[in-house]
């Protein structure tokens, strides 16, 4: 099956007619250029991150999380970067830069809540991926962190988007179907375009694009290949479990959760074990 995830002409036309994709900042382009070298210089990446308080804080917090911490905690950015590796450094830079582009347009408490939840889902997806075969935990983290990154973009563009989210939560409607009907674009398609424009891989962009597609798990004719579907599935499971543990209404996964569990071969007992894993502080 083809692994080409280019957006169609119609998707590009409808999205560009409805919404402005935030431009990729220079700092992200600098980091991407260094990270894509055959031998990236961690010292160069470290200097970029040290120069930004938000990136430094994110790097240290992630390095001290259960995903990466080995031994004592660190307050050193260079040591944090050494623990994290190049791919996760790129993730940090893109996440902080994307958050900064939204500052001032969206209430700080809303933005904080969104990114805190995204970080929780990303950590959960990565921890679950470690228990499975064939899904790289760092890719799972990156995808999960960014798969809903277009939601703040939609909030910034459409003043009634918060009301749309509340309506979907109370009625159980499909978020992407309501988005498409009201705004002529969805956060899945906008997110794929955002990921592509900001230099994330076509794999990540493709998984973002199709993470609400009802045919994603269709046997014999999936819309994405196994690598992308693995990222989608592990994130669906992470979100579903976290929402259940928090007793919150799930507007993101819905009826795709049983399909994700089946795709990953996870039983009810496995889910209980994962809940215990994710409950660890």
Index terms:
281 residues; mainly alpha; Hypothetical protein af1432; 16 helices; 0% strand; globular
Report the radius of gyration as a whole number of Å.
18 Å
Number of domains: 1
Number of strands: 0
CATH homology superfamily: Hypothetical protein af1432
Which topology does CATH recognise?
Hypothetical protein af1432
As a percent range, the share of strand residues is: under 5%
- Look at the structure and give the CATH class: Mainly Alpha
Largest pleated sheet: none
Q: Return the string of H and E elements.
A: HHHHHHHHHHHHHHHH
Ends: how far apart?
Answer: 41 Å
Give the quaternary arrangement of the chains.
single chain
Shape: globular
CATH structural architecture: Orthogonal Bundle
Low-confidence stretches: none
Describe this structure in words.
66% of the residues lie in helices and 0% in strands. It is mainly alpha-helical. The protein has one domain (9-278): Hypothetical protein af1432. The model has no long low-confidence stretch (mean pLDDT 85).
Helix and strand layout, with pairings?
Elements: H1 9-18, H2 26-35, H3 42-50, H4 53-63, H5 77-84, H6 86-102, H7 108-130, H8 137-146, H9 150-157, H10 161-171, H11 175-183, H12 187-197, H13 202-209, H14 226-246, H15 257-264, H16 268-278
Give a brief rundown of this model.
The chain has 281 residues and is an all-alpha fold. The mean pLDDT is 85.
